[in-house]
Design a protein that fits this description.
single chain, mainly alpha
C-alpha cells in the first residue's frame, strides 16, 4: 500500500472532521467508487445523489446557531466514522481489499478526529480574533474543506 494512499485517506478524514458529508460527495463527483462489497452501494446513482444531498444539507445546517458542536461526543463519533468510511471507499477504489483496508480506515478516522478538533479551535479563534460573524468564517471553512477534499482525490499519473 502506498504512502500516497494513506496520506490521501488521512486528508479525507480531516475533511470529514470539517464537514462530515463532504468527502463522500467529492468522491462521488470525481467518480471514485468502491470496487465491490457493501461499499459498492455508494457508487450507485442513488448513493451519489444521497451523498450530494447530505453534503448540501450539512453546509446549510452548519450555519445555524442551533447546530450542535462538532466536538460533542455523538457528532465527533459520527465524523470519525465518516472519515473512516471515506478513506475505505478511496482505498477500495484503488484496489485494496480485505484486512488491508484497515490502515486507510484508521488514517481516515484519525484524520477526522484531528480535523474536528482543529477546525473547531481554528474557527473559534478566527471569530474571536477577527470579529467576523461565525457564518462568514464557516463559509471560509467550507471552501477550505472543499479544496482539501479535491486535493485528496486528485488523480496522480505514474
Amino acid at each position: 500500500m502506498s504512502r500516497h494512499l494513506l496520506l490521501s485517506a488521512g486528508l479525507l478524514g480531516v475533511v470529514a472532521g470539517l464537514r462530515s458529508q463532504l468527502p463522500h460527495a467529492v468522491l462521488a463527483a470525481r467518480g471514485v467508487e468502491p470496487a465491490d462489497g457493501p461499499l459498492k452501494l455508494l457508487g450507485t446513482e442513488a448513493g451519489r445523489n444521497a451523498s450530494y444531498l447530505a453534503a448540501v444539507g450539512e453546509l446549510l445546517a452548519d450555519k445555524l446557531p442551533v447546530t450542535p458542536s462538532r466536538v460533542e461526543r455523538g457528532a465527533l463519533i459520527g465524523r470519525v466514522l465518516s472519515g473512516a468510511l471515506a478513506a475505505t471507499t478511496l482505498a477500495s477504489a484503488a484496489g485494496v481489499r480485505g484486512v488491508r483496508l484497515i490502515p486507510p480506515a484508521l488514517a481516515g478516522g484519525a484524520g477526522a478526529w484531528a480535523g474536528s478538533w482543529g477546525g473547531y479551535l481554528a474557527r473559534r479563534a478566527a471569530v474571536e480574533r477577527t470579529g467576523l460573524p461565525d457564518p462568514v468564517v464557516a463559509v471560509a471553512e467550507d471552501l477550505l474543506a472543499g479544496a482539501l477534499a479535491v486535493a485528496a482525490v486528485r488523480r496522480r499519473d505514474g
